[in-house]
Design brief:
This protein is an all-alpha fold. Helix content is 98%, strand content 0%. The longest helix has 122 residues.
Length: 124
């Protein structure tokens, strides 16, 4: 019976050894999977860093383009405003001339009649 007990104990120890071996294998497999995951995470991190860098470059380019476009638009608006101002000044001059022209023409007409009358007196 002692032999049977020892034999049972040996079997149980063997079973435990097998289970420990199985656990060791599973832990090794888990370690390999964790390493693979770490490598993948590193790769994703590198890709994310590259994407962030490209995004930053793209944002800088877009800002420069926006600044250039804004300055060109400002210059265009300034040019248009200048042209409109010059045109408005010309219109004001024409408006003044149009307002004074009939009066000036009337004065010249009176002077001309006066000169005609004086010439007629001189010729007589």
């Amino acid at each position: 019976t002692l032999d049977q007990k020892v034999q049972t104990l040996d079997q149980k120890v063997q079973t435990l050894d097998q289970k420990v071996q199985t656990l060791d294998q599973k832990v090794q497999t888990l370690d390999q999977k964790v390493q693979t995951l770490d490598q993948r995470v590193q790769t994703v991190d590198q890709k994310a860093d590259r994407i962030a860098l490209e995004l930053n470059k793209t944002q800088n380019k877009m800002q420069k383009m926006e600044d250039r476009l804004s300055s060109r638009m400002d210059a265009g608006f300034d040019r248009i405003t200048g042209t409109i101002d010059a045109f408005a000044k010309k219109l004001e001059i024409y408006n003044r001339e149009t307002a004074t022209f009939p009066k000036t023409l009337d004065e010249h007409g009176k002077k001309l009649k006066n000169h005609e009358g004086r010439l007629a007196k001189l010729e007589a």
